Amino acid sequence: MLNQIKGLHHVTSMAADARTNNAFFTKTLGLRRVKKTVNFDAPDVYHLYYGDEIGTPGTVMTYFPFPNIGQGRPGTGEVGTTVFSVPQGSLGFWQDRLEKQGVTGIKKHETFGEKRLEFAGPDGDGFALVEVRDDEREPWTGNGISEDHGIRGFHSVAMRLRDEGATTELLKFMGYETLESKDGVTRMIMPAGNGAGLIDLETMPNISRGQQGAGSVHHVAFAVENREKQLEVRKALMDTGYQVTPVIDRDYFWAIYFRTPGGVLFEVATNEPGFDRDEDTAHLGEGLMLPQQHKHLGPILAEHLQKLED
């Protein structure tokens, strides 16, 4: 069993409109945009990162807003719900805020003994806020949401699977433990992790496979401290039979990817070097920061890419 993984690092999804996506995460949810860059493989498409003040691993939601992308079709083999941690007693504030801003799909209930508020993102993305006691992570309060209500980071992701067996075994190999099973959902936890240590596996044997598009999660990333730990994880996964990519430099972390038995794309990402490697902390996410191979396209992209704000 591995001991290098510490919980979630980031979740990456797809959207149809960059401006709408940016407004939702910064103005509605009050997260900080910590990086404005472009897709390594499609530089005419943004890669937007939202999180806490510095983009701490375990807080970062990222998006590829592809213009004219088709709508995703929910199903199995994907992350269905991305869940954020908020302080106890704050769901009333969030329900009122989301309703006033026209957010759809709002539903309040309890699961695994936790108060939960579900809602939809601009592209039908599945989200939820869960009240968590004693989450000591510091929220970003720069977008008008107080510390008493601010999002602390990820609580969990929920994966929809036709059969959870092989994914459960994989997560156990990665260091997760089974916490509880209830109503077709198995909750797994990363002990002594980074605060973003829960995974819910939803077994849906009669649901067809999802089709990715706007509103779909592209991949979920797990955090390791550094490149040395990442290489240890890569070797162990390959020794177990997984097809794992070489290490890829993503500017703000190094990444490896592999497809899980249930169909979800996993990434293992390093905590280093972080989002302040090319911008001062006070100005994260303000400038258009381009990967080295696309820097020559700067003037063209500045004109081509959609303006995120007035």
UniProtKB/TrEMBL annotation:
<dbReference type="Pfam" id="PF00903">
    <property type="entry name" value="Glyoxalase"/>
</dbReference>
<dbReference type="InterPro" id="IPR004360">
    <property type="entry name" value="Glyas_Fos-R_dOase_dom"/>
</dbReference>
<feature type="domain" description="VOC">
    <location>
        <begin position="153"/>
        <end position="271"/>
    </location>
</feature>
<protein>
    <submittedName>
        <fullName>VOC family protein</fullName>
    </submittedName>
</protein>
<dbReference type="InterPro" id="IPR029068">
    <property type="entry name" value="Glyas_Bleomycin-R_OHBP_Dase"/>
</dbReference>
<dbReference type="InterPro" id="IPR037523">
    <property type="entry name" value="VOC_core"/>
</dbReference>
<dbReference type="InterPro" id="IPR052537">
    <property type="entry name" value="Extradiol_RC_dioxygenase"/>
</dbReference>
<feature type="domain" description="VOC">
    <location>
        <begin position="7"/>
        <end position="132"/>
    </location>
</feature>
